[in-house]
Amino acid sequence: MHLMDHPNVISLKHRFFSTTSADELFLNLVMEYVPESMYRVSKFYSNTNQSMPLIYVKLYMHQIFRGLAYIHTVPGGCHKDLKPQNILVDPLTHQVKICDFGSAKVLVKGEANISHICSLFYRAPELMFGATEYTTSIDIWSAGCVLAELLLGQVYVIAFLLLLKWCK
What we know:
The protein is built from 5 helices and 7 strands. By secondary structure, the chain is α+β, with helices and mostly antiparallel strands. It has a single domain, classed as Transferase(Phosphotransferase) domain 1 (Transferase(Phosphotransferase), domain 1, Orthogonal Bundle), CATH 1.10.510.10. The strands form 3 sheets. It has a 3-stranded antiparallel sheet. A two-stranded antiparallel sheet has the order 1-2. It has a two-stranded antiparallel sheet with strand order 4-7. A hairpin with a 6-residue loop joins strand 5 and strand 6 (96-98). The longest helix has 18 residues, at 54-71. The chain starts with 11 loop residues before the first strand and ends with a helix. Residues 1-168 form the Protein kinase domain. Belongs to the protein kinase superfamily. CMGC Ser/Thr protein kinase family. GSK-3 subfamily.
């Protein structure tokens, strides 16, 4: 994480360890501040019965794909939990930053991974079918779900329900 340096990926400013009275060790990460999440921006529009302006959808998605392209330059680098809550937005500049790398992993070809990752509404079909070998394309599927949500003003439930039906 500390090696990532891209305008559309959250940056790590500082890290330090702390302990509790029970001698538990905690890693603390200090990230750059970005005031809003894509989730809250999207909810603003849907709560006011407005569609997000198409120019913003295009601007945001361009930046999301730029950030993913950078993350994917690390061979096998995969976010594995892309969703509006893990995309930050500066409402003044409209700059987007991908954050929350808690599920991120470098995928190794031939190595099994867990399939129950990624939030359900943004989970790729191969994960829904229980695949343990997958590629960074799962991030692209998630980004497509984010795009649909920004355009529709709600989670793209129809695609999700179809996937659930296929999995039965």
